[in-house]
Design goal:
homodimer, 426 residues
Chain lengths: 426, 426
């Protein structure tokens, strides 16, 4: 029965029972972590073969004959470019291979724009004001990058088919101080949103007031499907931008971080040849090149996109029951009570949970006091400020299934308590 | 006999013979590369064991229990910090482990200072003028970083015991726009200079007009000795700066790039705890962490500093004959003629050769036309401008011994021709 239909007395007695339950939980001194989108140990075990692909010195040459043990090849091995291009569904000539972190590429890209401008435009550090569009809820580390450079972030509602395009179109075309926009187009963090073809086409066709406006297309979950038979496909943004006469408007990012080992993989950027020219001019000052043996290792391990896809289905098989355990608990305990809504993602690493307005911080704090760490409430919004104090990011991948069941239970109890207390206070 | 004692006729006939020799060489269509400090394939083979240190998933945990296959540990594994600290002769708590490139750390450090300042000082991008001291001859990639950020570079003569300290002291204390200084304190690139204790102490005791002045101490060749019984030791700059009341004045850099595989190793920074605080505040926005498996791989392979030192002697054994081949040729062909001077390094990767003023560019071009690539003349100076057009960096590591003999021969012929032509034109 919906909590809204309960009398004050019924709410009070329910609350009393829940608080007893909560106190019992606290006594168990648990130590659970659902805070970050980290793969579980079982997922990491899937990629152990990655460490066993080389057989002797003669085996360490790139297909172009380059000895991967030595300096050189600034923008990556040809086979690594091909592999990352296939993953992103772009052309290899549009790809640069970087080090171990796509976040690092995004940071460096914003930093380059700040310090030296975009393809010859005025460096952002010389401007009074730079603004950025942030579909929300979104990824806290994105927001941290733009905040670090003093960029003013504007919240844009993110629906299940993409950001509010009316708002995006209006703002971008009117305000030349808007220089960029974060997008996670597939299985968005945390909502699992997948950008529809229409949204991608409208993004590609933007008419920005700023010539140095760029879409940061973080395709972090590009092959991270949860189901074999229900895989999201999104349009190729590079191609769409080119068709729409905006060939330089997008930087796309991806990595193997949740394909093989997080932080031990290969990250890449895809963008227009014109953009690449400027990127490489800076990159050649910054480094002699990234870890080519690790590029070769990944290529040898996967061989091609089919190898990657097959591998990702093994991840999915391990992740599905974890997502399901959380969803089952929510369905059983929260649906009837009608006190929260949540996403049912078909890929990615998160469930986005919305509790009653004004309750998210309290829920997260109560969980913490009970020994369970969640992503901080507010983290899914710029400046850590959720205007409704409602959104909580659930990351089911890292705990074991047993831990996850326990964690969901704690979470549900905390949500119920916080909700009733809020209702009673109003 | 010294060329200076030859008559004009003698010079002309010598030149004619040399030109014939040069023409013969050109006909051989050689393809030699002495341009960069790249280890030879024989050196790379020394580290193959690095790729074979892991045995199963249980073997991939750091000594603190952290699974190195997953996200986390922003500033590196404890054992990697200890290893890099031992290499640099500093304390582990002063060390951050980065990715595969110390050049990348230096770039990022300058970039951070440019974009956000140094420990809270005014960001350099907000200043009209930033200057930098550059001991010359020096490393072209250092100069490229400071040039990239529009920093005005000032040449400082580098002697065999370090930079001209009278000049450094005067400039740094008088000019608050001087914000930094490049130093390669041991086996400097390219001269092989080793900073004396007195020089290190005077550097540590500088009284900079700018509070955000920093010494960039690139200890790139810290364990790169050429001889077992003649190993340079330099003072610990962090310790000396602390003693002198300048604890935050230095950033030290090192990597395993020429210890194991270049660009596939582990790079590190060492600096004061106060500096680290600011570095980490930015780093945590830039990345979740660097490749921990590669850190673990290096630690497991070397175990400790003794392991590194032993390994470096294997490199030395391969490098010594290469250096010797070049020096022998110079001794035999250039010493008597008295037309060049060169260093006899006891470590590092280079021989610094000074030909007659106004001849370096011509020599490098002639070598190129004969099929041999040298580091560009001028590259060892800021902006690529050698005021005397005299210095040439010789990198003997990459060619095979046979190639090296041929290369030295070509070089000697080109030097002789350029010198005589210069003498005859005056």
């Amino acid at each position: 029965m919906s909590y809204k239909e309960l009398s004050k007395e019924e709410l009070q007695s329910t609350l009393a029972a829940l608080k007893e339950e909560y106190n019992e939980i606290c006594k168990m001194n648990m130590n659970l972590d659902m805070s970050r989108g980290k793969p579980g140990a079982d997922q990491l075990d899937l990629s152990m073969g990655l460490l066993d692909v080389f057989h002797g010195a003669s085996d360490l040459k790139s297909e172009n004959g380059f000895d991967c043990r030595n300096y050189g090849l600034l923008d990556g091995l040809p086979e690594a470019k091909r592999m990352m291009a296939d993953i992103m569904d772009v052309k290899p000539e549009n790809v640069i291979i970087y080090g171990n972190s796509s976040l690092n590429i995004m940071y460096d890209t914003v930093c380059r724009s700040y310090a030296e401008g975009v393809n010859g435009s005025t460096p952002w550090c010389k401007l009074d004001k730079v603004k950025w569009l942030c579909p929300v809820p979104g990824y806290d580390r994105h927001f941290a990058v733009t905040e670090h450079f003093g960029i003013e972030m504007i919240n844009i509602p993110l629906y299940q088919d993409g950001p509010d395009m009316d708002m995006v179109e209006k703002l971008v075309s009117e305000d030349a101080s808007i220089k960029g926009m974060w997008c996670i187009p597939k299985y968005s963090n945390p909502s699992g949103a997948v950008y529809s073809d229409e949204v991608v086409k409208r993004l590609a066709a933007l008419k920005p007031a700023a010539e140095d406006f760029r879409i940061y297309w973080d395709n972090a979950y590009v092959v991270h499907h949860l189901f074999e038979d229900n895989q999201a496909e999104i349009l190729n943004i590079l191609e769409e931008c080119e068709k729409a006469g905006n060939p330089n408007m997008v930087y796309e990012f991806a990595s193997t971080s949740k394909v093989t080992f997080p932080g031990v993989g290969v990250a890449a950027m895809a963008t227009s040849e014109e953009n690449l020219k400027y990127v490489k001019a800076q990159m050649t000052v910054q480094t002699i090149g990234h870890d080519k043996l690790n590029q070769l290792r990944h290529y040898r391990y996967f061989k091609n996109l089919d190898g990657v896809k097959e591998h990702m289905m093994k991840h999915a098989a391990l992740l599905r029951p974890k997502f399901q355990a959380v969803l089952d608990k929510f369905d059983a305990e929260l649906a009837d009570a009608d006190i929260a809504t949540w996403t049912r993602p078909t890929g990615g690493y998160f469930i986005s949970l919305n509790v009653m307005d004004g309750c998210a911080k309290k829920v997260v704090q109560m969980c913490k006091d009970a020994g369970m760490v969640l992503t901080g409430a507010g983290a899914t919004f710029p400046y850590g400020k959720d205007p409704k104090d409602s959104n909580i990011r659930i990351a089911p991948s890292f705990p074991t299934p047993a831990e996850l069941e326990k964690a969901s239970e704690i979470l549900v109890v905390c949500i119920k308590i916080a909700t009733i207390e809020k209702m009673l206070s109003e």
